[in-house]
């Protein structure tokens, strides 16, 4: 199982954060439209991520949702054809939520920087620092990114986009 340290924060000006990513030397990997279908499971989270390119990934992850910095253990299976698997999972597990997003991806060292727009929720930045058997390096890189992007604790979101959408639906 793979592991990373994650943070997510609400942002107002995505262009500013894209500029900072380029200034620190992050490489732009592309812009993607993604649909994440979350399924009802007892433990962790299971989602099918469909890219506008036609590629899909089945992703299972477990993480504590109690802090702004969260360790996440995850597994990803890449799929070339997912429609029949999606239909099977919908029938077997049911859909918890569907999250659509436009995501810009940057890579800096062993970190993924995501600048996301979620319809109905707004703009966010995510850092995922991939664990490489050196927890100190992971934490130092996360702190470097938070400092460079000038993120404050009040900006952080402690839950997934799935939870944010469900909260918003429950408020209606």
Question: How would you describe this protein?
Answer:
By secondary structure, the protein is an alpha+beta fold. The chain has a single domain (2-171), classed as Hypothetical Protein Pfu-838710-001 (Beta Barrel), CATH 2.40.320.10. The chain has helices spanning 14-23, 83-93, 135-148, 161-171; strands at 2-11, 27-39, 45-51, 56-63, 70-79, 95-108, 111-118, 122-130. An eight-stranded antiparallel barrel has the order 1-5-4-3-2-6-7-8, surrounded by four helices. A hairpin with a 5-residue loop joins strand 2 and strand 3. The model has no long low-confidence stretch (mean pLDDT 95). It comes from Kryptobacter tengchongensis.
In short:
27% of the residues lie in helices and 46% in strands. It has 172 residues and is α+β, with helices and mostly antiparallel strands. An eight-stranded antiparallel barrel has the order 1-5-4-3-2-6-7-8, surrounded by four helices.
């Amino acid at each position: 199982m793979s592991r990373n340290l994650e943070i997510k924060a609400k942002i107002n000006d995505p262009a500013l954060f894209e500029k900072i990513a380029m200034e620190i030397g992050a490489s732009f990997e592309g812009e993607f439209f993604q649909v994440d279908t979350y399924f009802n499971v007892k433990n962790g989270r299971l989602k099918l991520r469909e890219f506008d390119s036609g590629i899909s990934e089945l992703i299972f992850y477990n993480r504590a949702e109690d802090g702004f910095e969260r360790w996440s253990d995850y597994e990803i299976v890449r799929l070339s054809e997912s429609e029949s698997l999606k239909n099977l999972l919908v029938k077997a597990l049911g859909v918890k939520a569907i999250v659509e997003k436009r995501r810009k991806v940057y890579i800096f060292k062993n970190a993924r920087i995501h600048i996301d727009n979620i319809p109905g929720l707004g703009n966010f930045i995510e850092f995922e620092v991939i664990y490489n058997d050196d927890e100190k390096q992971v934490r130092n890189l996360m702190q470097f990114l938070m400092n460079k992007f000038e993120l404050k604790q009040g900006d952080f979101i402690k839950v997934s986009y799935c939870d944010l959408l469900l909260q918003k639906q429950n408020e209606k």
